[in-house]
Design goal:
single chain, three-stranded antiparallel sheet, 3 helices, 11 strands
Length: about 180
């Protein structure tokens, strides 16, 4: 069997502007057998998930209501990266805005495509080591956030036991465990 081909986008148009993302309708063409079809793609800015670790080895997490699942969710702080903003800087900004923790040493742990079947963006995982409370929280208008500080192993165990777990937050925890296994001992 031959390798799949890259389709050509013949035409695209904005289908819906949903504030945090836009839906585009793309009319695509297959280069070998001439098939054509319409496909819908979600476009938004890249996302960042921060993994802030305190000096005593606790992972700072947020618990908030998530409208998609209509449930509370415990996850890494994060959000949309501003245009032109570096993922590491975005992680520090989002962490302080959502949790009131800042400082320390930051490093990019990895990047993934959240759902390449329908989304065009990337999600970045950033480790922030040695964060400390600043009490300078600035949540968005509709955010109501509880800040938690737990051992990374406890965070991973709770995430694995939760069938409604934010999948990217779980992936971020696995990435952290792969890079810094001693935090999970």
């Amino acid at each position: 069997m031959s390798a799949p081909s890259r389709w050509t986008v013949r035409h695209e148009e904005l289908h819906a502007d949903c504030r945090v993302f836009r839906v585009y309708k793309e009319h695509c063409h297959h280069p070998l057998d001439q098939r054509e079809g319409d496909f819908f793609v979600l476009r938004s800015g890249d996302w960042v998930l921060a993994l802030p670790i305190t000096a005593d080895g606790r992972l700072v997490l947020v618990r908030q209501y998530r409208f998609g699942i209509r449930e509370l969710s415990t996850e890494a702080p994060g959000g949309i990266i501003e245009p032109g903003e570096d993922p590491v800087r975005a992680a520090a900004r989002e962490t302080e805005e959502e949790t009131g923790f800042a400082g320390g040493h930051a490093s990019l742990l990895g990047t993934c495509a959240p759902n390449p079947a329908i989304q065009a963006n990337r999600s970045h995982f950033v480790l922030l080591e040695g964060v400390r409370p600043t009490n300078r929280r600035a949540p968005d208008q509709h955010e109501e956030i509880q800040v938690l500080a737990v051992r990374p192993a406890e965070a991973l165990a709770q995430a694995l036991a939760n069938p409604a777990q934010h999948s990217l937050a779980l992936l971020a925890l696995y990435r952290l465990r792969d890079v810094r296994p001693e935090l999970f001992a």
